[in-house]
Amino acid sequence: MKDEGWICCQLGAREHYAIPRALHSRGVLARLVTDFWLSPYPVFSRKIGSLLMRDLQGRYHPDLANADVEGLNFSSLRFELLSRVRRQTGWTQIMARNKWFQRQAVSILSGSQLSTLDSQPVLFAYSYAARDIFRFAKAQGRKTVLGQIDPGPLEEEIVAGEVARERDVGALWEPAPPGYWDLWREECDLADRIVVNSKWSRSALEKAGVSPAKIRVIPLAYERPAETNIFKRSYPDEFDETRPMRVLFLGQINLRKGVARLLKAIQLLKHEPIEFHFVGPVQMSIPDDLQYNPQVHWIGPVSRSDVDTFYRSADVLIFPTFSDGFGLTQLEAQAWSLPIVASRFCGEVVRDGVNGIVLNELSPNAISAALRSCVCQAARLRTFAANAVRADRFNLKAVAENLLRLFDSAV
Question: Measured in Å, how far apart are the chain's first and last C-alpha atoms?
Fold first, then answer.
């Protein structure tokens, strides 16, 4: 297995291209096919930069500078512009983009010279944009690996239940259209291996009927910013009105992330010296009493370069998700020695009572009790910060080793 090449078909810049970078570091990446690849050539950047550059930041990585990368830049630009002209949004746009990418990827692979390699490369693609690619691969007798980006249909069921319970704030959510999950099940059937990032995702896929024999858990890779090596986190002896405990929520502000329960918990904590900072796009309705509450700060989306500022200034990260494939914000927070209060429906980063608190239930009472225990015991947060996770299993080397062992009979 270690001598075989890999082809990665990746729509978007998920995980900063961690999978192709990990494979390239071991010399086994035959090709990366992606929708946009902005090599640092100023002429090309000027041509499209004024149109979509804000959306395309990060569509390049120096680790892949000498890799065989096929970017569908002009075709992708054309698709996005036509999509805007046609006013495609939501699921219509998502499914159209997934179909377009697969068609383009198959066209490139069909006309490539990769068949001249000594072995047929393993073909890797991410979920929801892999069905047609895998059909092509199987027709050539290639092995296929599906990167499952989330816990699948069980997650949608969970969110649908929360939407039904929180009708006043969840009107912005829409379930996947008919056929979406049928296409996904075909991907799972065509995949020889399915990579998930957490035990939670594995259990969710098994409940959806996916063969356990195909599923492998490979946690996300994360590279700590150099600045974290010299950062020293400090806490006061106690929190009060002049120095409240700063709680950070970072990510999509929606029902899946447990925000409705968190907002109710905030109301239970209105007399505590705590302030809340919500950083990310709002995808639900926010009650007026919380939208204008001086205890709550709505920051909105920020650039990647500004995210670290919030990790540095916070005292604790709150992550009450109902379902996440992993939850990269946990690793980002731990890099800055930031304690976490998290649910158990995500990647296993928090060890309860060691580097944070694991919520056994996602009720407003449970969330408020966990945060109250932190605000009343600043020394406890100091201990959590000192025990921040720095495990080797969350790096590119570990990802590469796990990928190259996917087809080992002993795994």
Answer: 13
User: Would you say 123 and 144 are in contact if contact means Cβ atoms under 8 Å apart?
Assistant: yes
DSSP three-state, residue 147: strand
Neighbours of 207 (CB within 10 A): 13
* Backbone torsion region of residue 350, taken as left when φ is above 0, otherwise alpha when ψ lies between -120 and 50, otherwise beta: beta
- pLDDT confidence of residue 1: 42
Write the DSSP symbol of residue 16.
G
Give the three-class secondary structure for 327: coil
Buried b (16+ CB within 10 A) or exposed e, 321-345: bbbbbbbbbbbbbbbbbbbbbbbeb
- E strand or H helix that includes residue 357: strand 356-359
State pLDDT tens for residues 326-359.
999 999 999 999 999 999 999 999 999 999 999 9
What is the arrangement of strands in the sheet containing 274-279, beginning at the earlier edge strand? 296-300, 274-279, 245-250, 316-319, 340-343, 356-359
d(CA 290, CA 359): 23
Which residue type does 409 have? Answer: S
Q: In whole angstroms, give the CA distance from residue 402 to residue 388.
A: 24
Is 304 within 8 Å of 274 (Cβ atoms)? no
pLDDT of residue 2: 44
Per-residue confidence (pLDDT) for residue 3, from 0 to 100: 45
Question: Which domains does the chain show, CATH number per domain?
Answer: 6-221+395-404 (3.40.50.2000), 226-392 (3.40.50.2000)
* Owner of token pair 């239970």: 268
Q: What is the 3-state secondary structure (H, E, C) of 65-106?
A: CCCCEEECHHHHHHHHHHHHHCCCCHHHHHHHHHHHHHHHHH
- Closest C-alpha among 162, 175, 331 to residue 257: 162
Distance CA(53)–CA(38), nearest Å, equals 10
Cα 229 to its chain centre, rounded Å, is 24
- Residues of the chain where predicted confidence (pLDDT) is lower than 50: 1-3, 46, 49-50, 116, 410-411
122-126 vs 215-217, strand pairing mode? unpaired
Which tokens belong to 240? 């009060």
